[in-house]
Amino acid sequence: MEDLQLTGKLVVLASASPRRLEILTNVGLRFEVVPSWFKETLDKRLFKTPHEYAVETAKQKALEVAKRMPFKHLKTPDIVIGADTVVTVDGLILEKPVDKQDAYRMLSRLSGKEHSVFTGVAIILCHEKEDEEIDYQVIDFYEETKVKFADLSDDLLWEYINSGEPIGNWGHFTEFKPCEPMVLWTLIQRASPCLHRFIEIRDKAGGYGIQALGGMLVEYVHGDFLNVVGFPLNQFCKKLGLIFSPPGSLTHNSTQTSPQGSAVDTVPPAEPAASSPPGSPTHNGPPDSQGQNIPSASPAHNVKQEESGRGEEEVPWTLVNSLSKCSENREAEPQGINDPAAPDLTSRATMQMQNVREHETEDSKEKLCKMIELMDGFKASKVLFTASKLRVFDVLRSSKTGELQAEDVAQEIKASMKGTERLLEACVSLGLLQRTGKQYANTAMSRHFLLSDGPLSLQGYIQHCNELVWPLFTHLETAVREGTNQHEKAFGKTSNNLFQDAYYSRHEVKLRFMKAMHSIARVSGRDVATAFDLSKYKTACDLGGCTGAMAYEFAKAHPGLSVTMFDLPKVIEMSGHFRPHDADDRVSFVAGDFFKDELPKADVYILARILHDWSDEKVHILLSKIAKACSPGCAVLVSEIFLDEDRKGPSRGLLQALSMTEGRQRSASEYSLLLKSHGFTAAQVKHTHNLLDAILCVTE
Ligand SMILES: C[S@@+](CC[C@H](N)C(=O)[O-])C[C@H]1O[C@@H](n2cnc3c(N)ncnc32)[C@H](O)[C@@H]1O
């Protein structure tokens, strides 16, 4: 039996469930946790069977993460695992109770009866194609386990409900942050709903947790016990074994014959992760009987652990392989406490207490992980800044094979061998580079965002962070004590007007600032430009449009729209440097000061990253001027980082506020109120899940 490994692959669990995490961790799988944002709102009536519903939900959860990660986390996973567990009884699907009454309703329905627990699992294989589009292949299956509850008195039920377990006995909410390297710009990009966000873990389908106190309610379990806990490990391992079997040994017959159902689909890259009912192209589509859509573990994947630099605790693949080769037929023998080998009730209770302790340990490990990440965050950021500044990513790209040894890189970047090696190794650990043997190469994420001439290059913004934001943050303590911006301390110069005094006083600083704005506008511009239907408008004016990157995105997205880009004369004189090769002549440039000069006439005024920079007083001056220039039906589109309504995130916005001069960050409803006070109403808000969100309001 060949040993197969997931070495070097980025495996992601798209679930915040500590139980799933524990089950997979226990078998030695190394993975990251990125909880899915997919809302479990599929219409159950559209599904013929409960397992179809669970499988579809699992698939949508996993796809949402697979599609979000390249943009929000700046890395493409190799494998994303999604799961959804439902309990069914009397033809009803029970999910997670929302409160104690709901838990009582569910548990009393289960009392004295046998019910089924279905877990749908989706394994998404992500393949980056040559054009950097990503192919998603879906392997899904489900597992059913039958569980019988004893007759439960009301007193017992309430005692159990009041223990807190049915709706989360480690607190209803837990602060969750997966263990990942914290790179400043990763933070900036993805912190929003992922970091510092409270994620519900009261995730007990049917309102009980069999692995803890809820186990005492159970008379018998027929089938996979771990399936009831939340993840059918046995069948999952078999499927993994099939997927990563050596070429030739792959069979997909199981997708047609397995009683537990399994399907292989390819999802087109452009497809949104929206909910889709069964029968949609991605649901239970025909399996690829030739196996062509399934990647096999090629010898290249079987790199030795010491070469890969990852994974000393690999999955015991011999076991996984054996499982995968086992007959697909389920064993008819019941498992659980009817099984003579199963532990008696007392020892089960002891095991459950042990489980509680293990969960607590896991919980504190997660917290420690987060602490370490926070403590080391600045080092990671500086590694990124330094590697970018030394052009490490460009140097690797320019080599013939796309990979170089440390000494060649050292020579190219004119740095010491020892220092370069350390830098490259640190980059590998942060996912910025990959290493095979002694050869270093860019990762997909670096190719995407870190090459200086890439269409989505963040180099400009990274250098701005390095040269301007970093020195400001070294004076954070004073900034907090004094409540002021620390430009003078950091740069030996006061800045009353951020742009005139700080950014535009020297040519190279201005160019750097413009490059920074340009890179953010290139990365976020399309999502902002397509956030709303602007087809009824003919003209737009992008106030403070800087290099015009956003204006070009609007022109591209709206064929009937002409866009005037308006900015200070010092900026307009340089904006030609940033003109795209396919520049649209519907974009024109006007120089002026939006506080003092007359504004160009337009149907829509765009304010992208403008309002947060100014005091309330100046914001009102600007909005009054826009309101005056508008005729009825005109609109204002504001694009900013929108704070959550409770101002608890995203940290990207709140961290940025720490180095602000006179401005401040606002939530969508604060922007809406602000605009309303100038006669702009009927707010439409778009959270783009990119760097900037958007709000559109119209004049009455
Ligand atoms: C934070 S940048 C945003 C750039 C651009 N809107 C974007 O999203 O990429 C602010 C812009 O406002 C411009 N700006 C600042 N003060 C201005 C003024 N008084 N009149 C016109 N533009 C101004 C700056 O030159 C700069 O381009």
From TrEMBL:
<keyword id="KW-0489">Methyltransferase</keyword>
<feature type="compositionally biased region" description="Basic and acidic residues">
    <location>
        <begin position="303"/>
        <end position="313"/>
    </location>
</feature>
<dbReference type="InterPro" id="IPR012967">
    <property type="entry name" value="COMT_dimerisation"/>
</dbReference>
<dbReference type="GO" id="GO:0047429">
    <property type="term" value="F:nucleoside triphosphate diphosphatase activity"/>
</dbReference>
<dbReference type="InterPro" id="IPR036390">
    <property type="entry name" value="WH_DNA-bd_sf"/>
</dbReference>
<dbReference type="InterPro" id="IPR003697">
    <property type="entry name" value="Maf-like"/>
</dbReference>
<dbReference type="GO" id="GO:0046983">
    <property type="term" value="F:protein dimerization activity"/>
</dbReference>
<comment type="subunit">
    <text>Homodimer.</text>
</comment>
<feature type="compositionally biased region" description="Polar residues">
    <location>
        <begin position="250"/>
        <end position="263"/>
    </location>
</feature>
<dbReference type="InterPro" id="IPR036388">
    <property type="entry name" value="WH-like_DNA-bd_sf"/>
</dbReference>
<keyword id="KW-0808">Transferase</keyword>
<feature type="domain" description="O-methyltransferase C-terminal">
    <location>
        <begin position="473"/>
        <end position="680"/>
    </location>
</feature>
<dbReference type="InterPro" id="IPR016461">
    <property type="entry name" value="COMT-like"/>
</dbReference>
<dbReference type="Pfam" id="PF08100">
    <property type="entry name" value="Dimerisation"/>
</dbReference>
<feature type="compositionally biased region" description="Polar residues">
    <location>
        <begin position="287"/>
        <end position="296"/>
    </location>
</feature>
<feature type="region of interest" description="Disordered">
    <location>
        <begin position="327"/>
        <end position="346"/>
    </location>
</feature>
<protein>
    <submittedName>
        <fullName>Acetylserotonin O-methyltransferase-like</fullName>
    </submittedName>
</protein>
<keyword id="KW-0949">S-adenosyl-L-methionine</keyword>
<feature type="region of interest" description="Disordered">
    <location>
        <begin position="250"/>
        <end position="316"/>
    </location>
</feature>
<dbReference type="Pfam" id="PF02545">
    <property type="entry name" value="Maf"/>
</dbReference>
<keyword id="KW-0378">Hydrolase</keyword>
<dbReference type="GO" id="GO:0008171">
    <property type="term" value="F:O-methyltransferase activity"/>
</dbReference>
<dbReference type="InterPro" id="IPR029063">
    <property type="entry name" value="SAM-dependent_MTases_sf"/>
</dbReference>
<dbReference type="InterPro" id="IPR029001">
    <property type="entry name" value="ITPase-like_fam"/>
</dbReference>
<dbReference type="GO" id="GO:0032259">
    <property type="term" value="P:methylation"/>
</dbReference>
<dbReference type="Pfam" id="PF00891">
    <property type="entry name" value="Methyltransf_2"/>
</dbReference>
<dbReference type="InterPro" id="IPR001077">
    <property type="entry name" value="COMT_C"/>
</dbReference>
<feature type="domain" description="O-methyltransferase dimerisation">
    <location>
        <begin position="373"/>
        <end position="450"/>
    </location>
</feature>
